[in-house]
Specification:
mainly alpha; about 90 residues
């Protein structure tokens, strides 16, 4: 069934409805679907033709990693167990 045929089929079904409450519910559902679809379209951004890391860094204001701070954190943690045991403990 083509899209146009589906539309006409839905129109026929809707015009056959005699209950206003049911029409009101259909209207709400259609409005919610339309609004959620518009939100999804707003969230979808087009992909770039080429990925430029420098451009992404600038756009996202990436400041880099503070190697000294990471080194201090590693020393503070002072792991005595082998990493394999720690991974197994998490599972």
């Amino acid at each position: 069934m083509t899209i146009e045929a589906k539309k006409y089929h839905l129109i026929e079904q809707i015009t056959a409805i005699q209950e206003e409450a049911l029409l009101n519910r259909l209207e709400v559902v259609l409005q919610e679907l339309t609004e959620s679809n518009q939100l999804l379209l707003q969230l979808a951004k087009p992909m770039r033709d080429k990925l430029n890391i420098e451009e992404l860094i600038k756009e996202q204001d990436f400041q880099g990693v503070d190697k000294e701070k990471i080194g201090r954190l590693i020393e503070e943690i002072a792991l005595d167990e082998p990493i394999e045991e720690l991974i197994e403990a998490v599972r």
